[in-house]
Amino acid sequence: MRICGIDPGLRGAVAILEADGSPWRIEDMPLRSLGKTRQEVDGAALARFLVEAGEIRLAVVEAVHAMPGQGVSSCFSFGRNVGVVVGVLEALGVPLLEVSPRTWQGDVLRGTPGDGKERALRWASLAFPGASLFTPRGKGLDGRADALALAWYGLRAAGRAVA
């Protein structure tokens, strides 16, 4: 059985870990275009990816909320994308755990130096040295790091990993 971690943003990702903690696959969030400049989560592509993964014991999704200063349209689009992710998981019958950033970061990233996205990238680079976490130009793919950390949180919550 596998554990899934999902960072639901447009620059998010989906990470699936085996029961022993090794990564099965990490993918950027599948997106589809809405006109020339807008994108949204592609629920059908996400569903295909999750079905391909086989039996998923638990999916851990970052519980997100509006941030001060975000526009109404931006908040609505983000909420819609989160709804697509949750809807796909529910339609597939995958058990879901929503976890606040403070909770999973406090648990998984404890003791990892750094701040913000760099901290998650540092943790993921050490925990999963073979994972593709940077672009060819060296830019960090923090959505992938967050998805791995969420999956690891889920693995620990499911009692499958040695702390």
Which helices and strands appear, and what pairs or packs with what?
Layout: E1 2-7, E2 13-18, E3 23-28, E4 31-34, E5 38-41, H1 43-52, E6 56-62, H2 72-92, E7 96-99, H3 101-108, H4 116-127, H5 142-157
Parallel strand pairs: 1-6, 6-7
Antiparallel strand pairs: 1-2, 2-3, 4-5
Task: Provide a descriptive summary of the structure in words.
The chain is of the alpha/beta class and 163 residues long. It has helices spanning 43-52, 72-92, 101-108, 116-127, 142-157, and strands at residues 2-7, 13-18, 23-28, 31-34, 38-41, 56-62, 96-99. The chain has a single domain, classed as 2-Layer Sandwich (Nucleotidyltransferase, domain 5), CATH 3.30.420. α2 links the parallel β6 and β7 (96-99). α1 (43-52) runs parallel beside α2 (72-92), α3 packs across α5 (142-157) and α4 crosses α5 (142-157). The mean pLDDT is 89. It comes from Aminomonas paucivorans DSM 12260.
Describe the structure concisely for a colleague.
The chain is an alpha/beta fold. The protein has helices at 43-52, 72-92, 101-108, 116-127, 142-157; strands spanning 2-7, 13-18, 23-28, 31-34, 38-41, 56-62, 96-99.
